[in-house]
Amino acid sequence: MKKGKWSFFTKTHCLVLANDAARLLDNLPESDENTLNNIAVRYKEQHKTSFVTKENLQQIIDGLVFKAVERTDCLLILDYFKNKSFSFRTTDKALDSTPEKKTSFAGDGATSNGVLLQRYFLLREMAQDTVAKKRIGNSLSLIAEAHGGAEVFLFGLLKQIGNTFYLEDEKDTIQVCIEPETVFSGPGVFVPNTFVAVRGSREETVFRAREFQNIEVDSLKKTIDKYDKETPETQPLSEDEHVLFVSGVFLDCNTAIARFEEILSAAEETGSIPYAIFMFGPFLGSEEEDKYSKLKHCLGLFLKRIETYPAVTKKTKIVLIPAGEDPFETALLPRLPIPSPLYETKNMKQSPVCIFSVSNPLKIVLFGRNITLFTKKCFKKVVEKDISRRTETSIRSVFESIIGQFFLSIGDERDSFLLNHTDGLALYPVPEVVVFCDDNTQFYGNVSDVFCLCPGKFSMPDYPYFSLSFKEFKIRKHGLR
Q: What is the pTM of this model?
């Protein structure tokens, strides 16, 4: 079976591609035939696709947005849309009682990537009718059939066995040819198990998806079972335990830190100690000439403040996640040395603090109760000191077992992974973190194949944090169906 030459688009790129077309279409006078033709031509040239015409442009938008995200079981969060601008047309009475109606939300930000997620969620909300769902979900298939089936977008998880990559879609497992310039899963990094769209032909089926899944499940199950037996402390959390998600806490802002300390104080006083606190960057609210020194200094002060809460210090893992698309945060955090408070004070010596760089997903390490290191240069020294018998691979499985176990897919059980919708966060299993901080849309790329965060609006002090209980959703290990 010959291998094909495919073009890969991650879910984000599908949304961006659809956004380009949506923005063009929404600004288009419907009577302008020449403009329609020009848009179709420009769209084809920009995205190197041969089946875009003025007639199917809207179908492509609907199909890309719907199909690129529908398997992630994201939660519809209307509250988030209040301050965003978004509009689209519908021509199907099954979707809306008024054909050609434009639905919009007041505000600014119509060109942001967040608008595409809004577009999808609203489309999904409107498409409760079975006929409408089928029309939207099959739009790309209809386009492919209209063009002779020569090229079609396939959607699924990109898998890897050895050096061969496969695309697992709803019907088949497709063997694909990977070329560096066609892989868009991150800045120079390709991560298997990415949810992607692939342009190519169905004729290159290698074997059925179910057979492929069995290989993955058996291998993964052995790894997880072995680790669970060796480390009982990483067993799934009880239903009463919870985690906190915090955003907008600038380490150089006394007001923001004070609000964060209110969270810690409340936890300390009530005894409701979170298992983990996830903090999302950027961590500096002001511009500094020497950002490295500033961040290092602020991080040290921050850790000293945490030390004043002994219960939190002893039981809580604190995970600092920098902004993935911020070149400063992404490049800087991996270079920071281990903050001295972790080792120089009695209480902080075993502090369960984890800091990782989202730009390097394959180097994520989490071990015991020490801070995470980022680069292979630092890695060997720490391994020899703290976990000399573990390899980098097994350390990554530690991360998946400790933290990943409650950030994993629950497959088709659509209603069992819903979180606190009033605070706006949904989780789904693709190697990409998407977090909305304050009023700015931030895309955090390629953390690992463990978890993904999707739209939630966080700001200080309106939404300083939210807590979710494990009673609110089921826990399911990644890849086991």
A: 0.31
